């Protein structure tokens, strides 16, 4: 069991940095819960795995502790000093290691997330932006905010996105609202589809009887203001 658990952890393991404690800890917590091992790491629990009674679980936790140490950047590793490293070996020490990392990284992580949330709400459309560059940047902020206490709801994030789009994308703003695309990733997927084919995308403007109906053109239609 230990080897199978260890091997299933290897692909796509996030590296712990001082600003991404929430994402890193959520990743490991979910894996530990899948294998019913979280109770041995949970700081609110006092459960301890006994090596003689549960050797496979004990070995699995030892492997996980080793992986956790491997998937940290130098700054985070430095927060566990050499004395701690010598002491934090074996399944019984995983909870203590978790507490050290949480206490040392959590504050910095929250500070960083606050900065990202602030950028998401205030940075806006840059003078040299295209729909693609703007959407990718906002989506990057959204991914970095995942799990943050201050992360807006999907609907709130879509409204923020809409208000930052220039007037020439008013048809896109209206379509997002009309179709109630309040899942942020779904909304930005539509923006990226539009961005990939900006020339003919006027066809997709709200040609639904509203004022300023554009004249028909083959394959493309510029909306009028």
What does this structure look like?
The chain has 225 residues and is an all-alpha fold. It has two domains: 105 residues, no CATH class; 82 residues. The protein is 56% helix and 0% strand. The protein has ten helices and no strands. Helix 8 packs parallel to helix 10. The N and C termini lie far apart (65 Å). 24% of the residues are buried.
Q: What secondary-structure arrangement, pairings included, does this model have?
A:
Blueprint: H1 2-9, H2 21-34, H3 55-70, H4 74-78, H5 82-87, H6 94-122, H7 131-145, H8 154-164, H9 170-178, H10 184-196
Offer a quick outline of the entry.
The protein is mostly helical and 225 residues long. It has helices spanning 2-9, 21-34, 55-70, 74-78, 82-87, 94-122, 131-145, 154-164, 170-178, 184-196.
Helix content: 55-70%
Overall pLDDT score: 77
Number of strands: 0
Main sheet overview? none
Q: Which class best fits the helix and strand makeup?
A: mainly alpha
Please tell me how large the radius of gyration is. Answer: 24 Å
Number of domains: 2
Shape: elongated
Distance between the termini: 65 Å
Number of helices: 10
Strand content: under 5%
Helix and strand run: HHHHHHHHHH
Task: Report the uncertain regions.
Answer: 1-9, 199-225
